[in-house]
Amino acid sequence: MQPPVFDLDPAELSADPYPLYARMHAQSPICRVPHLGATLLTRRDDIYVCEKNVAVFASSQPQGLMTRLMGENMMRKDGEPHLAERRQLFPAVSPRTVETHWRRAFSRFASQILDDLEPKGSCDLVADYAMRLSGEALKAVTGLVKTGWRDIDAWSQAMIDGISNYLGDPQVEARCHWATGEIDKAISDRLAERDADDDFGMIAVLRRAGMPQANIRHNVKLAISGGQNEPRDAIAGLIHALLAHPDQYALVAGGKASFREAFEEYGRWISPIGMSPRRIARKADHAGMTFEVESRVFLMFGAANRDPAAFERAEKFEVTRDNSRSVTFGSGPHFCAGAHVARMLVAEIAVPEAFRRLRQMRLAGPVVYRGWAFRGPVAVPVRWDPSRRERLT
């Protein structure tokens, strides 16, 4: 049987996808959406199974937006080619490297930014804290340390917009091409330099592993596209979620839940990475539905993480929830390679340090979220009480 058609308004999907996901869960959890040119899988268990079946649900997409705009990176490879590049990257993002190397760097960046912010008494957490901290962290992790953090954020957003440009806006595509060109210039400058023996940045690690320069470029673009906007949105979004749910923050502040648990719940509740596309490599059936060769499928992580069959009170933000079944970072061979980096940056440094340093932090205005393939707050205005010393100066 062919998946049933589900019509939707793309603007409604971007503004708030969750009512639409609830309708899909109830009416047609596997459905064809003409506006997106894809079949959507919305159930957690379907995605958990299908994501692992790369022989049918292939990540390799020679004509896909990411491949055409950014080059064929490890996310768009399957099997041994994917694993080979993932192994080459591992020393840059391993749990050991994150703990012994990146923790110190991330802590230093957060402290410097909060030193600047603390006397001011107010800010937009997205633009003034999360964006800058994510950019500084990503500069270090990629090895593009001479690049400005604002450039990192602009490039990331342009690529994110480009690879989710399913409506084919030519201006969006042109800006994505601008960003990838600028990144290539920055990578060329870095490749002209020698690597220090203790350099754990991606470029140095991948070059030592013998990865061809073209592949290094493709994978650095991949890291920038996801490694900036997702931590940025998770930092600001998690702080907003805790401020907007004081009962949940009280559980964290009182030691009944950790910031790490709050981060895992936020990732389930909002899903900064809301979707991952797949190409049907061979005709197959799943859950009574037929998938035709070369058709496009979207694994809807955002919908799966709100699946009422998998999570009780799925629409609620509850920091003590068991999130072992969430698919925030994926669930198959393409499980996010930067998960350890993200957990350290967001849950162990950025968010707890913001609450520690910005005394009596509170919301100072409404917060609007945007997006479905990638979702996060547009702005998070907050106020806090500067220390007495800072007020006197």
Which strand order do you get reading across the main beta sheet?
1-2-8-5-3
Strand content: 5-15%
Q: What is the helix/strand order?
A: HHEEHEHHHEHHHHHHHHEEEEHHEEEEH
Number of alpha- plus pi-helical segments = 17
Give helix % range: 40-55%
Distance between the termini: 71 Å
Q: CATH homologous superfamily name?
A: Cytochrome P450
Which class best fits the helix and strand makeup? alpha+beta
Low-confidence runs of at least 5 consecutive residues: none
Summarize the structure.
The chain has 393 residues and is of the alpha+beta class. The chain has 17 helices and twelve strands.
Report on the structure:
The structure is a single chain. By secondary structure, the protein is an alpha+beta fold. The protein has helices spanning 10-15, 18-27, 44-50, 65-70, 79-93, 95-117, 125-142, 149-163, 170-191, 202-208, 213-227, 229-244, 246-253, 259-270, 301-304, 339-357, 388-392; strands at 30-33, 38-41, 57-58, 122-124, 276-280, 284-286, 289-291, 296-299, 362-363, 369-370, 376-377, 381-383. The strands form four sheets. The protein has a five-stranded mixed sheet with strand order 1-2-8-5-3. A three-stranded antiparallel sheet has the order 4-12-9. It has a two-stranded antiparallel ribbon with strand order 6-7. Helix 7 (125-142) packs antiparallel against helix 12 (229-244). The termini are far apart.
